[in-house]
Amino acid sequence: MIKELKKKGIIKSIITGIIMLAISIIIMLLVFGNLFAYLRPAVDINEISADDLKQDLHVKGSIYFVADYYAYLSEGNKTKEMEFIIPVGDEEYMGFVCRGSKMKDAEFNMNMWWDYLDYDKEFSADSLIEIKINGIVKILKGESYQYYREFTEDLDKETADLFVPYAVYVGLMAGQESSDSAYSLIFIVIFAVAGLAFLIFGTHGHNVKAVTDYCKETLSPEYTLQKIENFYTSGTPVQGLRANDEYFMGVFGSTVFFAESSDILWAYQTTTQHRTNGIPTGKTYSVRIRKADGKDIQFKLKNEAACQEALAYIGKTMPYVILGYDDSLENMYNKNRSEMINTVAQRREQYAGSSFESAQ
Question: Which of 21, 48, 205, 336 could form a disulfide with 6 if both were Cys (CB 3.0 to 4.6 A apart)?
Fold first, then answer.
């Protein structure tokens, strides 16, 4: 029984873990599309011509001259990203998209060039900042392409043709909203961690941990496990539940709940109403079992009738357990659980005594 349930749990955990890791990888590829391009060998940006440009070309090198900019991305009053014009080859131009310190350095070099053009200030290449780049060439699309073409529309055709529709993007997240990238990164981490957790803990039979831990605490774990095996195979489950005077177990697919019957104090149905935009969209039904140690066992069933059948089964096999919800019972459980424990223990003794007399 334990091996069978453990196997189900391992299979489910492996499948779930693989799915979550796959989702994490897919999100990563969608958000950080430049990742694999960075793994390719890089070419020196100063040694290529416009004809060498292509999608996802990995380039490195140092740039100094920044002619202008054609677009920028801002969040609030702060500029987060700028799209500049830089030379490529002998006479063509392309875009250069960057953030952070590289954006500030590029803007500084651009302003130096502007000061030279507008105010005839002295211009020296030695005064320019070296901007070391490691980026990916992308074909300009969408708004970036629109702004790029708007920048060249006042130029004569021969000059405008020198501006090729490519840009170097620096960083995995260049060209994306910071908030979108941050949220995506959070989801990537969540799915990756959850996937690894399922693979690590699931393969250790975590779904039957309650049973194995209980057995380990007894004087003879093997004997106790055999008793639980016999208990599991001796009866027909009702809505996934098995119970007798000694043990309580719920098996739902690969999920296993286990407790000593004497630990079960109170059981009742919970109903959750679901709404979308204030409109009722359905209900879910569960059975909640409160234990003497303050912990809960809760499982969903397909409808209210299934919950009532499960509660009727609990009442039949463990008649001393308190059934049905009441605020006073909730208050007792939370604030004076010892009273509930004593009440259930007395009821248990009474039913055990009446059962013995009936047997006589």
Answer: 205
